[in-house]
Specification:
Elements lengths: L9 E2 L2 E3 L2 E3 L2 E2 L22 H11 L8 E6 L6 H11 L8 E5 L4 E2 L2 E2 L1 H11 L9 H11 L6 E6 L4 H5 L6 E7 L4 H5 L3 E4 L5 H12 L6 H10 L4 H13 L5 H8 L14 H13 L2 H12 L4 E3 H6 L5 H10 L4 E2 L8 E3 L2 H11 L5 H23 L20 H10 L1 H13 L3 H10 L1 H7 L2 H17 L3 H17 L3 H12 L8 H17 L3 H14 L4 H17 L3 H18 L2 H17 L3 H18 L2 H18 L2 H14 L3
Parallel strand pairs: 5-10, 5-11, 6-9, 9-10
Antiparallel strand pairs: 1-4, 2-3, 7-8, 12-14, 13-14
Length: 666
C-alpha cells in the first residue's frame, strides 16, 4: 500500500536534519570501461581526409581540457559510420572508454534531458550510485573523466551548442554530429567539419567493391550514385538489393529507382534520394520482412527488439531481422541492456512511417505494441517489489517474466524512451486505461532512476486518462505519484497541490489504502518543512491503513520512527523500530532490515549514546554492502564518520572515510 518497494536494490539518502528518507535504486559497485559506440562496418571509402583531421586532433589532446569536433551533414551521409571507424582505430587513446548518446531519444518539448544523458554515461561506467541532481551528475562525470581517464564521447543528433557544452568530459574528445551548423562551438574553439555526400568516383568504388566488375558499367554506377544522392545510407540499401539477387543488374535497379508510379517516399526533397531508394528496396522485401519494417513505422519509440516483434505477431522474426540488418536498415544498439535491441536510422523510421500510414492494420498493430509495453512494465513492477497496485494481478502474464528485480529495472531503463512513447501514443488514441495503468507500473523506474521530465509528462497524461476512464481511484494514484516527483525536486507547493486534489476524491473510493499512500506523501512533505509532529500523526495513520500488509507496516513504521526522532521523541522511535525490526525479520524483508538500523543510529545519537549509534550504523552499512546497495552504505558510512568525531576515534573515522572514497569512485 505504500509507494515504496520490497526490492533487492533500493536505497537512498535525502537528509532532513537528523532524518533520512530512502529509496533510490542504484547500480552495483565498480568503475568500468564503457564501449557504447557501435562497431564499424567493413565497407568504407573516401573518408580518409576526415579521419586524418580527427587523428590530428588526437595529437593535440592534453590532461587539462577536452577537445571538441563537430560534424554536420545531411541525414544518411555517414556521420555515425565515420565516428564508428574512428572509435575502432583510436580505442587505445581513450583509456576511460567510449560513450554514446542519441540526443533525439532524450529530446523533450523543453529541450534535451541533459541530466538523464549524464546519468546514462555514469551508469555506463558502472558507478556505485548515480546522484539525483543534474549538477551532482555533472560533477561526478567530470571526476570519472579526469586526467588519465580521458574518454571519447559521441553525441548524435545535436541541434544546439549548449547541448554539447553541458556534456563535456573533463579530458578526452567529444564529437558532435548533427544536420544543422553549430557556429557557437566554433567560437568555443571546436573544430567544425562538414561531411559531404560521396563523390561519384567514391560511391562507384564502394558499389563496385560489392558487385565485382560484370554487373554494371561505369556510367550505370555513376547514375546509381547520383540517384542515391551520394548518401551511404541509400547506397547500403541498394547494395542489399543487388547482393540479394545475383541476377539483378544495375540497369534493372536503375529502372526501379526511377519508377515514380510506385514511389512511397515520405521524406523531404532534401533527402528524397534516400526515400526513392527505400521505396525500391521495400517493394522487393519478402512479406515477413515488410511486416517487421511496418513495426519500425508504428513503434512509438526509437528501438525495437525480437521480443517485441514476436509479441505483436510479426512472423519469421529472425529472418526479418537478418534482412533489415543486412540492408543496414537496422543497427545493433551498443548500449548495455538485458536483451539485444536495434535502432533504425531516423530517415528509415520516417520512411517506414510513410509506408504504414495508409496500412489498414496500423492502429491494431499500435494497440498490440502498447499492450506489450504495458504488460511487460506491469511484470517488471511486480518483480521489483511488493506494493499496493490498482491493476489486476494477471496483467502481462502471457509475456516473458524477469529473473530478478535488478533484471526488471534494467529492462525498464533500457526501454525508457519506448515506454514514454507508448504513454504518448495511447493518450493520443484516447486509450485511457492503457495510459494510467502504464504510468502506475513506471513508478519503480521513475522513483528509482529519477527521470523527472518523463515522470511529470507521463503522469499529467495519466491524470487526464484516469479522469476520462471515470476511475477516481486511478486519479488519486496518478496525482500521488506525480506529487512524489514534485516532492523529490523540492517543489513542495506543487506537490501539496496534487495531494490536495487527490485527497478531495477520497470520498468517492472505498479502499482505505489509497488514503494511506496520501498520508505517507503528506508526512514526507511535513518532514521536509519541519512540521515533525504533524508528520508523526500522518505516518501513524498511514501505518494503521497498512494493517494486513506486513511490508507496508514496516515501511510506515520506518517513516514514523524518523518523524519521532525529528520531533525529539527518540525513545519512542526506538520502540517503534524494535517492533518493525521483529516484523521485518519474520517476513525476511532484507532491504528493510538494512534501512531500519540507520534510523536507530540517528535515535541513539539523539539520546547521546554514540557507542550504540555506532553499532546500529555499522549493522546498516554491513547489510548494505552484503545487498550491493552502495548509496545506502554511503549514508551509513558518512554517519559513522560523524560519530567517530563525536567519540574522538580517528581509526573509526579513517576506516569509514576510506570506504567512502571507494564508494564515490575516487
Amino acid at each position: 500500500m505504500t509507494e515504496s518497494h520490497r526490492t533487492v536494490n533500493t536505497v537512498s539518502g535525502t537528509v532532513h536534519g537528523t532524518v533520512m528518507q530512502a529509496d533510490t535504486i542504484v547500480m552495483a559497485a565498480g568503475i568500468g570501461v564503457p564501449r557504447q559506440i557501435r562497431g564499424p562496418r567493413r565497407a568504407f571509402v573516401n573518408r580518409e581526409s576526415e579521419l586524418a583531421r580527427l587523428e590530428a586532433v588526437l595529437g593535440r589532446l592534453d590532461d587539462v581540457r577536452p577537445a571538441v569536433v563537430a560534424f554536420t551533414g545531411l541525414g544518411g551521409v555517414g556521420k555515425t559510420e565515420l565516428i564508428a571507424q574512428f572509435a575502432a582505430r583510436s580505442a587505445a587513446r581513450f583509456p576511460g572508454g567510449q560513450l554514446y548518446a542519441d540526443l533525439a531519444a532524450h529530446r523533450r518539448l523543453d529541450g534535451v534531458d541533459l541530466g538523464e544523458v549524464l546519468g546514462g554515461f555514469l551508469r555506463g561506467f558502472g558507478l556505485p550510485f548515480v546522484p539525483e541532481a543534474p549538477a551532482e551528475r555533472a560533477a561526478a562525470f567530470r571526476s570519472v573523466t579526469a586526467a588519465g581517464r580521458g574518454v571519447l564521447v559521441f553525441l548524435d543528433n545535436v541541434e544546439h551548442a549548449g547541448e554539447v557544452r553541458a556534456l563535456l568530459p573533463a579530458t578526452g574528445l567529444l564529437v558532435a554530429a548533427g544536420r544543422r551548423r553549430l557556429p557557437g562551438l566554433a567560437l568555443d574553439g571546436a573544430e567544425v567539419m562538414r561531411l559531404d555526400p560521396l563523390s561519384t568516383g567514391a560511391g562507384s568504388e564502394l558499389v563496385r567493391g560489392w558487385l565485382g566488375p560484370d554487373r554494371g558499367t561505369d556510367a550505370e554506377l555513376a547514375r546509381l550514385v547520383e540517384l542515391c544522392g551520394g548518401l551511404p545510407l541509400a547506397l547500403n540499401a541498394v547494395g542489399f538489393r543487388l547482393l540479394d539477387r545475383e541476377e539483378l543488374r544495375v540497369s534493372q535497379l536503375l529502372a526501379e529507382l526511377t519508377d515514380k508510379e510506385h514511389g512511397l517516399s515520405s521524406l523531404s526533397n532534401e533527402e528524397g534520394a534516400v526515400g526513392d531508394v527505400l521505396d525500391a528496396v521495400h517493394r522487393r522485401l519478402p512479406e515477413h520482412t515488410r511486416q517487421f519494417y511496418r513495426l519500425l513505422g508504428v513503434n512509438p519509440g526509437p528501438v525495437v527488439s525480437a521480443e517485441l516483434a514476436e509479441a505483436v505477431g510479426v512472423p519469421r522474426v529472425a529472418d526479418g531481422l537478418a534482412d533489415l540488418r543486412s540492408a543496414h536498415l537496422l543497427d545493433d544498439v551498443a548500449e548495455e541492456g538485458p536483451e539485444r535491441r536495434y535502432r533504425a536510422h531516423d530517415l528509415v523510421r520516417l520512411h517506414a512511417a510513410g509506408v504504414v500510414h495508409e496500412f489498414p492494420g496500423r492502429l491494431e498493430l499500435l494497440a498490440r505494441i502498447v499492450a506489450y509495453y504495458r504488460g511487460r512494465a506491469a511484470l517488471a513492477d511486480r518483480a521489483i517489489g511488493d506494493r499496493f497496485r490498482l491493476q489486476e494481478r494477471g496483467e502481462g502474464t502471457a509475456l516473458p517474466g524477469f529473473g530478478s528485480g535488478t533484471d526488471a529495472l534494467e529492462w525498464l531503463q533500457s526501454e525508457r524512451a519506448n515506454l514514454l512513447g507508448a504513454v504518448r501514443a495511447a493518450a493520443e488514441q484516447r486509450w485511457h486505461g492503457e495510459v494510467w495503468r502504464l504510468c502506475e507500473s513506471l513508478w519503480p523506474l521513475y522513483h528509482g532512476r529519477k527521470h523527472y521530465g518523463d515522470w511529470v509528462e507521463s503522469h499529467l497524461l495519466g491524470i487526464e486518462a484516469a479522469r476520462s476512464d471515470e476511475r477516481p481511484d486511478a486519479v488519486i494514484r496518478m496525482r500521488n505519484q506525480l506529487g512524489r516527483a514534485y516532492y523529490e525536486r523540492a517543489q513542495y507547493p506543487l506537490a501539496a497541490e496534487q495531494l490536495a486534489a487527490a485527497t478531495a476524491l477520497l470520498p468517492e473510493v472505498d479502499d482505505s489504502r489509497l488514503a494511506g499512500v496520501l498520508w505517507e506523501t503528506d508526512g514526507l512533505l511535513c518532514l521536509a518543512d519541519g512540521r515533525s509532529q504533524r508528520a508523526v500523526e500522518l505516518f501513524t495513520l498511514a501505518r494503521r491503513a497498512n494493517e494486513g500488509d506486513p511490508h507496508g507496516v514496516v515501511v510506515q513504521s520506518y517513516n514514523l520512527a524518523q518523524a519521532l526522532v525529528a520531533a525529539g521523541r527518540a525513545e519512542e522511535a526506538l520502540a517503534v523500530l524494535r517492533d518493525a525490526t521483529a516484523l521485518a525479520g519474520q517476513e525476511e524483508d532484507a532491504p528493510m532490515l538494512m534501512r531500519l538500523p540507520l534510523v536507530e543510529a540517528l535515535a541513539e545519537r539523539a539520546l547521546n549514546r554514540p557507542e550504540a549509534a555506532v553499532g546500529a550504523a555499522e549493522r546498516s552499512a554491513g547489510r548494505a554492502r552484503e545487498l550491493g546497495q552502495p548509496k545506502k552504505e554511503e549514508a551509513a558510512r558518512a554517519l559513522l564518520v560523524e560519530l567517530a568525531d563525536d567519540l574522538g576515534d580517528p581509526a573509526l573515522a579513517d576506516r569509514n572515510r576510506t570506504r567512502l572514497r571507494e564508494l564515490r569512485g575516487h
